[in-house]
DNA sequence: GACCTTCTCACCTACGTGTTAAGC
DNA sequence: TCGCTTAACACGTAGGTGAGAAGG
């Protein structure tokens, strides 16, 4: 199996576990513009969606899959004159921003049979009922996927960082090019899409 | 803990596991009329929904929860002059009609922390992609819930039958009183509900 | 004032209902 | 004809979008 994505599996006698990011081209387009993700009181989904393909797991072992949001630098960001620039010191990261994939725990075979999608994770800027991830607005984050084998010690957690998916949390979009890309590819934003601007093969009705 | 519902747990040294049916009053109203459930090519949800409350599980052990549909007698049924009457011999039951609860496998603590709902099971009369349950139209079924402790042998499956939830599979409703009760209580059928006929406390907007 | 956040809104996606007419 | 099944349909539920005005 070729190694794709941010694989960082541990060695030993086991076969190599690999976790690759899906829709990488789309993520890179956002990354080029500096990606932004909306946070709201009640929680907002991500677009694009973090979706990964796993291989090399033990089919009969049980795993829990996590999505963590790591604050990647130590400052607040500001959008000035069409550019993101680092500002003052960062605020304290809210206590661990970790989302448990709702199909957890499950067998290795389950996680490998189709891509693992984090479509339903919701980002918020308020402390809410659980399931939602609290982030500091105007701070930069990197999503990381963790695989935890149930019953094993925490030192054996496998971590897969995805730098392509970094984004700045915002309460309103700053860069209008980011807004346009979101509208262009997110079906839920179709109301704002001019007919002439639709991407090729765009699902209609 | 009082014993409620169709509990049929096994003895031994373990504490008593109990599984009780939720919304029993509603189920009994349908049962009195002889309940019917629609089957379609693409699968139809059940209404009412099979929903159970479990207790006495080992919080740290892993369980898979199943919903089985057992053909309860050996004839086809006909609706004649406002009555269901047994007809010819039954058709062969389609190979095991067992739905795996989508949160399976999971810890005992998970199954006990809130009622276990089978809202998303879909009944069909055609062989389809998995996840859907194929039943013979005009045959009578009884839903049964099974708890399977992961890794233990199959002789230790715990089975909980719910006779109140028996129904005849149909491709179109036969008894119009059944239709009326469905419309009265299923929010998705609100389009067919006259304002004056709404049950007390019915959710509006 | 400038910056950031919140709220309501129209407009979508996605899909669960029984009805009805047509099909077999 | 009769009994049963299918498919299209209008009308709901449920909830995901960015826009834009209002709030702090």
UniProtKB/TrEMBL annotation, chains A, B:
Q: Which residues form the T-box domain?
A: 21-194
Protein's cellular compartments: Nucleus
What is the superkingdom listed in this entry's lineage?
A: Eukaryota
Q: What is this protein called?
A: T-box domain-containing protein
| Upper taxonomic lineage | Eukaryota, Metazoa, Ecdysozoa, Arthropoda, Hexapoda
Measured against the full-length protein, the chain present covers 11 to 215 of 467
